[in-house]
Amino acid sequence: MSNAEAPKREISKYEARRRQIEEEEARQRREALNLSSDDSDIDTFVSARYRKKEKDHRRALLKNVDIDDERDDTEKQLDEEEKLLQSVAQNTALSTAMELARGVKYEESIKTSWRPPRHIRAQTEADAEKFRRKKGISVAGDVCPPAIGSFMEMKFPKTILKSLRDKDIVKPTVIQMQGIPVVLSGRDMIGIASTGSGKTLTFVLPLLMFCLEQEVGLQFSRGEGPYGLIIVPSRELAKQIHDVIAWLCGCLNAAGGYPELRVGLCIGGFPIRDQARTFERGAHICVATPGRLSDLLNKKIFNLQICRYLVLDEADRMLDMGFEDELRAIFSYFKSQRQTLLFSATMPKKIQNFAKSALVKPIIVNVGRAGAASLNVTQEIEYARHDEKLVKLLQCLQKTAPRVLIFAEKKADVDNIYEYLLLKGIDVASIHGGKDQKDRHTGVDAFRRGEKDVLVATDIASKGLDFENIQHVINYDMPEDIENYVHRIGRTGRSGKRGVSTTFINRKADLSVLMDLKALLLEAGQQLPDFLKQLGGDDDAMANDKLDNPEDIGCSYCSGLGHRITNCPKLESIRTKAATNLLRPDMSAQEGL
């Protein structure tokens, strides 16, 4: 080999090494850009980099398309549910026949003489909203009056303030802070708050002030009135509200210097003649159930010509119980505009839409989610076979001191529990719809006075009844819908106090209601038993975390959190009953043949 060939070999080795390094760098760049081995030169790298950007862009677009498709599906389902809700909701306005015939539509709220204190009026809207957020109050409506934090600033008489203090009612509850100023201002209102939150005083105290003002201006003559009408779903609740008003009226009369206010009670189970005597003298306030009120109005025992204040307490339950026709008939007796207030612990959208049609520029005051369980109640769920319920019931009574409320769906179960506890030496009373009115009042009064430690009842006692110091609520069975469950356990944990509820469930419980129960427990931060944890729900057609608006969560018909309106058991039950009635033969027509 010649000397001339040696440098050529050395250069070749150098070139080979350089090319190896370049190829290694190129390979690393290709890996970084996800390229194939064919992309070798710089132009290819540039175009490849562009292709990678295009690929990433396409991936992002596809991802957005998936999100949009998912959002579109959600919006489509919400639209379908809204149409379904509109098809089953009560859309005809609660208006008098004269108003409907003449096309009368009131545009402005009723004017009152009440004004909040000067420093409250001086608040900015930002200040008022800050106070509401602090108290957990949400409002909707035009020009909502500011919330007020004390009864004194609401300008109630000293006699009323002293009477409230005697009952350990020193400061207003959250619903009262916002609700009372709204009512005193003459505005129509929908009030939504959990059971035991003080809704009754929210409409009773302003009504007393309005009645005092009317009586001072011009005394009620014989047979005149009422000025205020309160309609409730059950006799027990009507008597409870009547007793609260009668107590406050008695306090005003005892103090002297105030005109006498009279309140009448219109409920079934008592002779109409006895109730008519109250209205012969002239009554300022009437507390009634729909059925008996319709009878008294039809018999012209009194009228609603000067009635300017209407309260529908537990409004959603009255409609659910089939009182819609009676309510429409009652509305036909009004002769002029009235201030209308609707209150409940559960106010699904089907009722809100219906209510808004009857109200003038309403203010919606909401403390917590409509249909939510009270956070003051510790909810315990126990699995119990039917044959072991009575034994478990006796064990549950040992959890707390008296007083205890026991709920059962069936009248027969109420009677069996009552007899069993009597045999065990427990002071117990019982009420249900099969007992006459005297026995029902006797049982409730004995329990209220503390003569009985335990009260066994059907859901007749869950509708707004207020018993002091209920330590424990026991559900002998799971109610047919979650609304009743919320009302039941709301008998304890009232007025800021703590309480316990125990609910027996087994395989007979409806799966949809158990799903609602599971969601309700999670919402309230309660402990889930293992048998509820195993229930599905994460793969629902529309999970709650996909919804931007909190109002869209759960069922818009019954407020249950564990299902949608498309598979609402309550709605399905109503439809089944309606279909059955349509298929039922017309017996009256057959009798006429």
Q: What does this protein structure show overall?
A:
The protein has helices at residues 5-33, 42-88, 97-102, 118-121, 125-135, 158-166, 174-184, 199-217, 235-255, 272-280, 290-298, 315-320, 324-331, 349-356, 389-396, 411-423, 437-448, 482-489, 511-523, 530-533, 569-583, 587-591, and strands spanning 137-140, 189-193, 228-231, 263-266, 285-288, 309-313, 339-344, 363-367, 377-383, 404-407, 428-431, 454-457, 472-475, 499-505. The chain has two domains: 97-367, P-loop containing nucleotide triphosphate hydrolases (Rossmann fold, 3-Layer(aba) Sandwich); 377-576, P-loop containing nucleotide triphosphate hydrolases (Rossmann fold, 3-Layer(aba) Sandwich). The longest helix is centred in the N-terminal third of the chain and has 47 residues, at 42-88. The protein is α/β, with parallel strands linked by helices and 593 residues long. It has an eight-stranded mixed beta sheet with strand order 1-8-2-7-6-3-5-4, with helices on both faces. A six-stranded parallel beta sheet has the order 9-14-13-10-12-11, with helices on both faces. 38% of the residues are buried. It is 46% helix and 11% strand.
